Amino acid sequence: MNALENTLEQKLAAVAASKPVPDEIVPDPAVLRSGWWAQYRRGWLSLLSLITVLGGWWGLSHSGIVPPLFLPSPEAVLAKLVTVSTQGFMDATLWQHLAASLQRIVLALAAAVLLGIPLGVLMGVSPVARGLLDPLIEAYRPVPPLAYLPLIVIWFGIGELSKVLLIFLAVLAPVIIATSHGVAQVSRNRLRAAQTLGASRSQLLWFVILPEALPEILTGIRIGLGTGWSTLVAAELVAATRGLGFMVQSAAQFLVTDVVILGIVVIAVIAFALELGLRLLQRRLAPWHGQQD
Amino acid sequence: MTILSANKVSVRYPGQARPALAGVSLAIGPDDLTVALGPSGCGKTTLLNLFAGFVQPDSGTISFAGQPVTGPGAERAVVFQHDALLPWLNVRDNVAFGLRLQGVAKAERLARADEVLRLVDLPEAGGRYSWQLSGGQRQRVGIARALASHSQVLLMDEPFGALDAFTREQMQELLLKVWQQARRRIFLITHDIEEALFLATELVLMSPGPGRIVETLRPGFSQRYRDGESARAIKSDPAFIALREQLLTTLFDHRRQAEEIAA
Ligand SMILES: Nc1ncnc2c1ncn2[C@@H]1O[C@H](COP(=O)(O)OP(=O)(O)OP(=O)(O)O)[C@@H](O)[C@H]1O
Ligand SMILES: [Mg+2]
């Protein structure tokens, strides 16, 4: 046994095994020397384009060429942010409009996740379920949600239910499709390895299939939230008494352009935050995604 | 006493003209490190999948400790060539995964995982993730996982096939150490003749069209390694080289015969 441990190869193996693999890629020293510009080039470029647009807007609105009715100045919009947040617009503050919109999307998202993930898993593991559900989803998915909004209004009225239902349908399809795709792609070796370690069918689902499909499911949710958010805002243009879409729409009717611009900016910021939040969540929950294994 | 055995098994995949395996019998005893060697397509993976319970034979039987095998089970652990670790679990949790499935308490299963990781020379890697490891380290984790859950047989399908020659040799020596210390039976597939000769207590030579066992021998080189001789000394021994060349000739002869029959 001693001779076994003491061969040169054994020692080399031990050395190789104990040497840690670096967790992060260490940047090339040449890159570090060339300074802050090279290191954060993309960030600086994004900042530059943002500043250019803001500067152009500021210059144009102060030049006197475009009347404030068409293009209010950035300061005017900023001032409006304060008044709309405190005093409100159309019987509700900005936060109440925002809350109304967010509440709808959260309800719709919760429902779509609760229904979409089980259905997606079912389609991923069972060819019968796939055969039955696939045509239904493929039939309604390509139709723009606003096209069937009138039908939903006829059936369910112009209340909250219609709006949540519309957004739910917009989120549901991508969640189902991404889940079933993720589940169907689970590595056969991993499933088999788990089986030879004694996994039951439900253990396979909880400990192998769902974790492995998680990155795809999150991608589906991210895409669904994107379409859902734009659909929601559009739906509020049609029938609502509160919400960001409603705020923009009624401001436009009274030609309160600064509120229109304010509303658009808030809508864009929320969309961006949702996207970013989900990307962060994905990196947090599935750090292995995109790493070769 | 045989632990795992195939008795005259045949398998024909749907739509295939020839059976992948025809009338194969093989017994793995309690102290065996059985190696199946043969060219691509001779049915090695099919045979391993039968032992693992992933595939059922069309005729013949597979039995484990006297009982017929009808599906995968925790007493027959499989080490795959790649893609079998769970990337969302760290190395320690991967190794303890089988015990977790069996409901073993957390402290106990993690202690067991650390113990097995020491056996495969990865005592420091418990907190890392599979995608942060080299190919050789991943295979060690795969072996550790198969050992941790008190399996009785390890089934290994070209476990070192994707590794470079140097790492491969390290892994062969590691496997012999593990095999001796953990006292597990091993059934290992390879198409590397040197690997087969070095590791096997029993070597079965397989040939395609239809897949079958054409020769069985007991090389005994792994015993010399256990007795303290170095791997390089064994592999450069004239007796080793002569046997290697003889096996190559046999394999080529069977290839030619198979081609003549097919023609
Ligand atoms: N799922 C399958 N469906 C149809 N034919 C299969 C299937 N799996 C294997 N075969 C066929 O059965 C024969 C034996 O395959 P097997 O994978 O057992 O060979 P192998 O010896 O493991 O080859 P390799 O060394 O390339 O891995 C081959 O002719 C192969 O094409
Ligand atoms: Mg194979």
TrEMBL record, chain A:
This is Taurine ABC transporter permease TauC. The keyword Nucleus does not apply. The chain crosses the membrane at residues 43-60, 105-127, 139-158, 164-184, 204-225, 251-274. Residues 98-278 form the ABC transmembrane type-1 domain. Coiled coil: none annotated. The lineage of its organism: Bacteria, Pseudomonadati, Pseudomonadota, Betaproteobacteria, Neisseriales. PANTHER family: ALKANE SULFONATE ABC TRANSPORTER-RELATED, MEMBRANE SUBUNIT (PTHR30151), TAURINE TRANSPORT SYSTEM PERMEASE PROTEIN TAUC (PTHR30151:SF25). It comes from Aquitalea aquatica. It is a multi-pass membrane protein. One of its GO terms (cellular component) is plasma membrane.
UniProtKB/TrEMBL annotation, chain B:
One of its GO terms (molecular function) is ATP binding. Transmembrane segments: none annotated. InterPro entries: AAA+_ATPase, ABC_transporter-like_ATP-bd, ABC_transporter-like_CS, ABC_transporter_ATP-bind, P-loop_NTPase. Residues 4-233 form the ABC transporter domain. Keywords: ATP-binding, Cell inner membrane, Cell membrane, Membrane, Nucleotide-binding, Translocase, Transport. PROSITE patterns: ABC_TRANSPORTER_1, ABC_TRANSPORTER_2. The keyword Cell membrane applies. Belongs to the ABC transporter superfamily. This is Taurine ABC transporter ATP-binding subunit. It comes from Aquitalea aquatica. The gene is tauB.
